[in-house]
Amino acid sequence: MAKSYAAIPQGVQAYLGPEVSIRRQLEAKLEEVFQGWGYREIILPLYDYFETFACGVGPGLADKAYRFVDRDGSLLALRPDLTTLVAKTVATRLSHQALPIRLFYRGEVFRYEQPKAGRQRVFTQTGLELIGSPLLASDLEILLIVEECLRAIGMPSYRIAVGHAAFFQGICKGLELDAASAEALKTAVDHKDVAALERLVSGYRIEESKKNFLVSLPHLSGGGETLRLAKAVVRNADSRRALAELEKIHRIMNEVGRDEALVFDLSEVRGLDYYTGLIFKVYSASLGFELGGGGRYDKLLETFGCKLPAIGFSLSEDRLAAALDSTLPAMESAVPPQKVAISSGPVAGDFARALELRGRGVPICLDSETEQDIP
Amino acid sequence: MTLTLALAKGRILDEELQFLTHAGISISREGLNSRRLKIANADGGYDFVFARGPDVPTYVEYGVADMGICGRDVLLEADADVHQPLHLPLGFCKLVVAGLPGGAGRRQSALSTVRVATKYPRVAESHFRDQGIPVEIVPLAGSVELAPGLGLCDCIVDVVQTGQTLAENGLVVYEVVAESSAQVIVNRASYHLKQAEVLRLLKLFEATARGQV
After folding, report:
1. How far is B196 from chain A (nearest CA, A)?
2. Band of residue A116 on the pLDDT scale cut at 50, 70, 90
3. What is the pLDDT of residues A146-204, one digit of tens each?
């Protein structure tokens, strides 16, 4: 059966009017922030070898990639993610440059998943990567930029929920869990499912106080007191290093007056096979889903043959637009174009007038309602 | 900040309301009788939305409700990305595979496809496929217990409380897929943006649940 001309594939959309305007304004403001912190824009290819994404972002996200076969038979994929492409480009082409390398990007990504949570199968991400610095100062730089981004676009009440990959990894290592048990523990913490945690923990041969601590993990979230609570219990070196880093971040963000939106969430356990240090997610009161997130991923560039630490974040432009939608005042509309009538008489004069206006930069719109065949 | 709670309508609602009353949160009679689907609490502390059970996880995932109470059965089917911090001692039931006594139904051999009628297509499909059993799902909106007797399917995946409806339709339980009870769920953004309110309510629910058990 022939499809109707109007039919569209699931997950795509076009934008017009205010939806375009809000996106372009967001982009301009974010670009200003990125450039203001010394980041250069990189434009990345729409597709690469599937293998690139599979070793980059891991099987979870690569599974959602749209795959197709090149003329030579190699398997390609539309980019499901941009960080992987930045990492590959830097690792293979730019690693001789002075470090650290600061790059920002914007572009569509493609994921084969059920359109939901304010995203279609094609959606736009914008973000940046700071590559080649293992320093905590870079973690702070990234958090300050995220904060400035949200301010710059006028996001009302937002939170940056900050955790650390090594905190939970340290706990798992200390418990000597096998992969399946660690996964079960991770899922329970991620769901904040206290009952499931109680069940799991009852099987561990550890002190009662540690069991209680594990059960309390889902709600180890809030201000600086969260870090102190955890520090009083946790003994393993990895988790303590994580807590020490977070404490420093807290102190400095506080001293520069940028800690208002910061919350600590030690139960943040997503993407642990990817992130190696700081992890964060951005939420706003006007949207039920995260607006974006990021963290430190010191092992990704190694997969492309260049051992460089890296940290970065990305924001979903579609979700930013959705979150701002209800709060943004009507866009200041551009100067309305001046109508230039094309008369039925000798038309050269009308066009000359149009060119004169354009020459002065006046926006015009040709009005050819009265146009007849040009004699 | 006011919290919005989504409650599942249907058989679990009476238990939910009773639980809320025990917790000191009352919804006015007028509100309940008015058939309105959204009401603000008399104390002004909470807003309530009443949704079909399967819609509660959706409301909470999208953040139109900050928190919700729904059955675990519903949550398993919805696959919603929400926090699930607390089980409540109400709405006990089981998700089971059931069919006519004597088992195999119309299946030709141990390897052939099982046809399953259900309101839980996701749960049913993964239950069978995880065991390597090919399955054909017949999604139904209700009266699932009729299906095996009518020859529509080999078995059903459905929720049972007392087993009475199954028995009345001449069905027996083959196996239990999951135990279910009510679960409190929380939107991921609300958890951070209204944390004090969310944690206060969770604590209240927990204390109430302990008092009831």
Report:
1. 9
2. confident
3. 999 999 999 988 999 999 999 999 998 888 888 888 889 999 999 999 989 999 998 88
**C-alpha to C-alpha distances, A281 to A160, A297, A342, nearest whole angstrom:** 6, 15, 56
Q: Note the ipTM here.
A: 0.85
Which residues on B lie below 8 Å from A220 (Cβ)? none
Cβ of A117 and B86 within 8 Å?
A: no
For position B112, what pLDDT does the model report?
A: 82
Name every chain B residue with its beta carbon within 8 A of the beta carbon of A270. none
Do A317 and A106 contact (CB within 8 A), yes or no? yes
Could you tell me which chain B residue has the CA closest to the CA of A265? B192
Among all residues of chain B, which has the CA nearest to that of A116? B62
Q: Chain A contact for B122, CB < 8 A?
A: no
The mean of the pLDDT values for chain A is: 90
Global confidence as pTM: 0.88
Contacts of residue A328, defined as CB under 8 A and 6 or more positions apart, other chains included, come to A22, A154
Decide the pairing of beta strands A278-284 and A338-341.
unpaired
**Minimal C-alpha gap between B191 and chain A (Å):** 9
Secondary structure class of A47 (helix, strand, coil): strand
- Give every CB contact of residue A214 below 8 A, 6+ residues apart in sequence: A171, A185, A197, A201, A204
Nearest to A229 by CA among A245, A243, A250: A243
Helix intervals (H) in chain A = 18-36, 50-56, 59-62, 83-89, 136-152, 165-175, 179-190, 194-202, 208-216, 224-233, 237-255, 317-325, 348-359
Q: How confident is the model at residue A108 (pLDDT cuts 50, 70, 90)?
A: very high
Which residue type does A162 have?
V
